[in-house]
């Protein structure tokens, strides 16, 4: 029986053919019925095809969901079974890295991890195989010399052209790179850098004096964060590449970039690009499997972050290209010149891409961290009653002539100045997240009575141990420079603003020199008012203030 015969025998056909108990006469009625039957057949076929397509889609999504569940659940039940007794930050964090990635997407990772530690104690599971340990007992085992722990795949997100000193995970490669770079920050090299720091400070003072003069004795209003960024970027531009970016002179965030090694030069906001790059890298580091697919994720966060990556790489390329074209004819020895001089044990120099990668590391580490830390020192000094006045009194005692910039040797031993800077670094750890390390093959590691097998990722959350009441006392959340007059052993161990051990910041001495000179000049020359008594932070790879509104005027005419 064919389709048409079935249709003619159906109740619907009966109603059409025998409406009012009368058969519709004529061949026209038969043709109409056949046309109707054909239409119904087509509708049935299309409906069936749509249903099959929908079913296939559902099955595909079910399969993908099953793979995702299996991907996380199997390791959870088998590989990570030794960690199941450790409380997790959330149920999702126990079986997936999505919780940590989500906190990074919200730019509040360190705050979320800190809150988890306050609820659950010093050992918290923040991903299936990632344990955060907020304890003095973990600092040396996780970061110290001779422990054998390796950087985790978190750092894959920070690779630009190729792994650099900061992002390489291979121990032998890191040793090679560190040998080639270490002379860059030697005591002899450090002494030669001060003149370039002073030159940029002179531009900074000139610009601020103009603003103060234009305010006619009132407080000149500025965003301190913006000017800290301009100063830090120009300093690292001068130190690393032999020429500042020109942000201080222009009073705005702008830098040259080059998208291709031999391409045209254009301009872009370097600070903004660096911010977005850091936020994206912090997220991708939590979920490295997303790195190849980031450009297809329909979220502006990823688009801005990828644009930031491209822009920062282009800025580094433009600077290195320009510096290489100048060659080594100049007597001036900057960081890039020292990188070009570096040799490994076989006498090989850094290749071009490797040179750009290391130059980017210097640029990022020497600008963003200094600017954020300096801004924090300004904010907390102005927010805390009596601190500014005490600091100015001590600086006045060692700076006889305020028309001349103090030298590093003049102010480096001012104890209260150092205490203010250190307390600022403690209160606002510019790198607040725990830097991830992986337990190497072997017997594993034991901390606080817990055994962590090979392959476990461990971290010590900087913000949490810098604000631990067990270490710093009940006033751990208060800015009190006087605490640095007498530190306990645990406090010395827990103070890690530049990290700790063989992978600690190689440019720490340069950063400290910059912080000491900038802070001494600013607070000795100007009086301040704080217009922003609460500030907002965005926690990417670095914990960054959004703004810091202040007023300043000259102390001396």
Automatic annotation (TrEMBL):
UniProt: heme binding residues: 505
Source organism: Exophiala sideris
Cofactor requirement: heme
Identification of the protein by name: Benzoate 4-monooxygenase
The keyword Oxidoreductase is annotated on this UniProt entry: yes
Molecular function GO terms recorded: heme binding; iron ion binding; monooxygenase activity; oxidoreductase activity, acting on paired donors, with incorporation or reduction of molecular oxygen
Keywords, alphabetical: Heme, Iron, Membrane, Metal-binding, Monooxygenase, Oxidoreductase, Transmembrane, Transmembrane helix
Family statement drawn from the similarity comment of this UniProt entry: Belongs to the cytochrome P450 family.
Transmembrane segments: 58-78
Pfam family, one: p450
């Amino acid at each position: 029986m064919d389709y048409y015969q079935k249709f003619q025998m159906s109740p619907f056909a009966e109603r059409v053919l025998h409406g009012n108990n009368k058969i519709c006469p004529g061949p026209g009625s038969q043709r109409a019925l056949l046309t109707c039957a054909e239409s119904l057949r087509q509708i049935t076929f299309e409906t069936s095809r749509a249903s099959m397509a929908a079913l296939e889609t559902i099955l595909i999504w079910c399969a993908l969901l099953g793979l995702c569940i299996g991907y996380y659940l199997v390791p959870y039940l088998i590989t990570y079974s030794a960690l199941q007794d450790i409380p997790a930050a959330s149920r999702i964090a126990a079986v997936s890295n999505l919780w940590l990635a989500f906190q990074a997407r919200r730019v509040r990772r360190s705050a979320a991890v800190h809150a988890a530690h306050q609820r659950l104690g010093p050992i918290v599971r923040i991903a299936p195989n990632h344990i955060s340990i907020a304890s003095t007992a973990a600092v040396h085992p996780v970061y110290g010399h001779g422990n054998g722990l390796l950087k985790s795949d978190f750092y894959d997100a920070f690779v630009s052209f190729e792994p650099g000193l900061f992002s390489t995970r291979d121990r032998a490669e890191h040793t090679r790179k560190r040998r080639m770079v270490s002379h860059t920050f030697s005591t002899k090299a450090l002494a030669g850098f001060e003149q370039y720091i002073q030159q940029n400070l002179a531009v900074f003072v000139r610009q601020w004096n103009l603003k103060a003069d234009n305010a006619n004795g009132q407080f000149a209003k500025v965003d301190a964060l913006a000017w800290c960024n301009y100063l830090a970027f120009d300093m690292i531009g001068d130190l690393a590449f032999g020429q500042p970016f020109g942000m201080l002179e222009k009073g705005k965030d702008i830098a040259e970039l080059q998208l291709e090694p031999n391409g045209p030069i254009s301009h872009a906001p370097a600070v903004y690009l660096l911010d977005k790059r850091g936020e994206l890298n912090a997220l991708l580091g939590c979920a490295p499997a997303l790195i190849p697919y980031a450009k297809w994720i329909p979220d502006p966060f990823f688009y801005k972050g990828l644009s930031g990556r491209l822009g920062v790489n282009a800025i580094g390329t433009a600077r290195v290209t320009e510096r290489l074209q100048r060659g080594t004819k100049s007597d001036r020895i900057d960081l890039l010149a020292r990188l070009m001089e570096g040799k490994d044990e076989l006498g090989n120099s850094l290749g071009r891409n490797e040179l750009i990668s290391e130059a980017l590391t210097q640029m990022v580490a020497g600008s963003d961290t200094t600017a954020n830390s300096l801004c924090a020192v300004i904010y907390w000094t102005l927010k805390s009653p009596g601190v500014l006045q005490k600091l100015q009194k001590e600086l006045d005692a060692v700076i006889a002539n305020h028309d001349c910039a103090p030298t590093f040797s003049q102010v480096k031993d001012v104890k209260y100045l150092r205490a203010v800077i250190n307390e600022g670094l403690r209160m606002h750890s510019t790198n607040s997240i725990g830097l991830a390390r992986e337990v190497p093959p072997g017997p594993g590691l034991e901390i606080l009575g817990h055994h962590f097998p090979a392959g476990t990722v461990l971290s010590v959350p900087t913000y949490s141990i810098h604000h631990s009441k067990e270490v710093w006392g009940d006033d751990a959340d208060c800015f009190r420079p006087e605490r640095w007059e007498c530190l306990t052993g645990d406090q010395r161990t827990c103070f890690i603003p530049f990290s700790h051990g063989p992978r600690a910041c190689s440019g720490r001495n340069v950063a400290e020199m910059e912080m000491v000179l900038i802070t001494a000049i600013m607070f000795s020359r100007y009086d301040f008012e704080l217009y922003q008594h609460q500030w907002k932070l965005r926690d990417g790879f670095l914990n960054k203030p959004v703004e810091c509104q202040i007023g300043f005027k000259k102390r001396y005419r």
